[in-house]
Amino acid sequence: MAPALSIYSSSSLWHYCPKPTLRVIIPKFKTSASLSTSSSSMAATTVNVVPAVIVGGGRVGKALQDMGGGDDVLVKRGEPVPLDFEGPILVCTRNDDLDSVLDSTPKSRWSDLVFFQNGMLEPWFQSKGLGDADQVLAYFAVSKLGEPPIDGITDTNPEGLTASYGKWASAVSARLHAGGLSCKVLEKDAFQKQMLEKLIWICAFMLVGARHPGATVGVVEKEYRSEVSALIAELASAAAAEKGIVFEGAIEDRLCAYSRAVAHFPTAVKEVELEERMVLFAVGEGNCRR
């Protein structure tokens, strides 16, 4: 389930800036739930963008590169991650490419990996010894390669939904702000709760969309609301019980509001085996009916 722009910092986060950073002056815009940025204030904000290695040259990877100042290193499929480049390593590949990305990354750089993938990656992190790896919940959509991203500003969350966690969280947040996107820095517990919400959104809307071929997420929200609402409620209840957490109220309203913000986005079920493992980890195998 990622514009003006407040950063929630944390004393428990490490802020690394080992290389000279690009200072970008961007206008600070007022935003609305309709994603309009036409009405603006005259103030300007200075943003430091830390150079990064970007793994994956697809839609998200290219968008992140465009937010930098030309000092980033883009690593494409099968290419090794450089050992001598200090800074974050932004991983923007498909989930099923993560094993090969890790194999191509020197182990001394694993602590600099920042994962932009959707879903519950915790079981994979545990299996690889990555511990509390840096993550980003990208609530923004990039429809086509080279197109500007559309931020997930909604009528229920006008401050934006994109969130980052980990030692490079502030650097990632600054980069997204430089690109006109919102991003908040969260502690682990708050981040995990939002991560589960994003996983629930993906599962509910993609599955209902698959049941109605050709339906976008906007069509699912508008025409099949009862179906998707039932799935959201069931998944949220199971995840809360399995993980011992309490979701903020109105989870259905938040997830449906995000669907309206990216209504054009297609629905599809991909990487079925991996996504099934993530869901089982999130909600507990005993809570799933096959």
What report would you give on this structure?
- The structure is a single chain.
- The protein is of the alpha/beta class and 290 residues long.
- It contains nine helices and eleven strands.
- The chain has helices spanning 59-67, 98-103, 122-128, 169-178, 188-211, 217-223, 225-243, 251-261, 272-283; strands spanning 22-29, 40-49, 53-55, 73-75, 89-91, 113-115, 134-137, 140-141, 150-151, 163-165, 184-185.
- It has a seven-stranded mixed beta sheet, with helices on both faces. The protein has a two-stranded antiparallel ribbon with strand order 1-2.
- β3 (53-55), α1 and β4 form a beta-alpha-beta unit.
- α5 packs across α8.
- The protein is globular, with a radius of gyration of 18 Å.
- It starts with 21 loop residues before the first strand and ends in a 7-residue tail after the last helix.
